[in-house]
Amino acid sequence: MDDHRTAPVDPAEADEVRRFWGRLGLPGLIDVHTHFMPERVLHKVWEYFDANGPLIGGLEWPITYRREEAERASLLREFGVRAFTAMLYPHKPGMARRLNDWAVGFARRTPGCLHTATLYPEPGAETYVREAVEAGARVFKAHVQVGDYDPADELLQPVWGLLAEARIPVVIHCGSGPAPGKHTGPGPIARVLARHPRLRLVVAHLGMPEYEEFLGLAERYDEVRLDTTMAFTDFTEAFLPFPRRALPRIAGLGDRILLGSDFPNIPYRYAHQLHALERLDLGREWLRAVCHDNAAGLFGL
What we know:
Elements: H1 13-23, E1 29-31, H2 39-50, H3 69-79, E2 81-85, H4 96-109, E3 113-114, E4 116-118, H5 125-134, E5 139-143, H6 144-147, H7 157-166, E6 170-173, H8 186-195, E7 201-203, H9 211-220, E8 225-227, H10 234-237, H11 247-252, E9 257-258, H12 270-278, H13 284-299
Parallel strand pairs: 1-2, 2-3, 4-5, 5-6, 6-7, 7-8, 8-9
């Protein structure tokens, strides 16, 4: 690993994070957008970030928490994150099933992990998604930008139907940030929701940069939620700022906004995401719901 790109862990940071949720009277945090995947795959992801690849908009993006798997999971627990995900995703056919097989073992050996699975538009997708559900998957990850696929692809229609019926949430990166793809934006996912209005979609990154359009989908469909991943941070505000005129809509959807971080692949400290939400000044109850209670209700924790 390129340790010269890794910031040292601040021993005071865990205390800072714990003070944040302690002030809110919470038992901890629930983070619906954290990345764990096979180490070889994750290291390839880190190499892509190190190279400032086009899918991250060519941005300088140092990985703050470049640590071994067990240390990363332990650090989340030190922060008081009582439940988190293993957001993993394929970029080509034949990869999703292998990732799902790995995820079963990771969930079993990792306290606090919400068993996560993934999918890709390919023959057999319905079969391996059903197998993942039967194996105990509690959340799925879909990445339209990296996978470079249309979420409304006919190969995925039975998958969306299966997940809607099972009421299993899908965290989906479908916005056009940090760089657009052929199938990103609100249009393709709106076509999915028109056919599967009860699908529990969690739009990653608040749908950046099409924030307002994705807020509109959440206002239209009761099962659509959004996660806060990287939104409102200094890093993101510098190139894809959230429109302040839309803050009342964020407040109005306070029961369907979920904390996400993108840990470990973030170019700043974990605590910064929390403080970025706090400085919106949307109130203690909004913060409590976003940082814990909404996800606790969604996952029955």
